[in-house]
Amino acid sequence: MLKISKLTDYGLLASIYLARHRGEKVSAREVAEFCHLPIPAISKVLKMLLEGGVITSFRGSGGGYSLETDPESITLAKLIEALEGPWELVECEVIDDAGHAVCGIRQACPSRSFMFGINRVIKHAFEQVTLGDLVRGGQPALVLAQTQRQLQPTGA
Known about the structure:
This protein is mainly alpha-helical. It has helices at about 5-20, 30-35, 40-50, 75-85, 110-130, 130-135, 140-150; strands at about 55-60, 65. The chain has seven helices and two strands, in the order αααββαααα. Helix 1 crosses helix 3 and helix 5 packs across helix 7. The protein is globular, with a radius of gyration of 18 Å.
């Protein structure tokens, strides 16, 4: 089944909280209380968001975490990649460090082009949703309709 991990779900909640308090330093405890989640889980996702370049951390007694970037410039795709790492829906689209496809039957696979198209549509939809949309409670149906229109061949 295709679904995001619990840690990614927690990371999205933490990102929303930080976006609502943009520019402020907030503690992992404060984020955990907002999300009603254990501090170790929130600390882990905050570290992942930090390593993914989404948030900033401050050390010391007045330290914490902060979102300094405009939430409108952070896409759902960037958040998911920070929390999950690089992702593809199907193995035939994964390329190893040497530049070779990981899937051994990639060239002969009858479903490759179809699955590639699905992968492209989903990634495009995630690239159209921003953290600002999540904060506002954006309308995913509108985003998906826009994505579908943008990916249709010209003249369709």
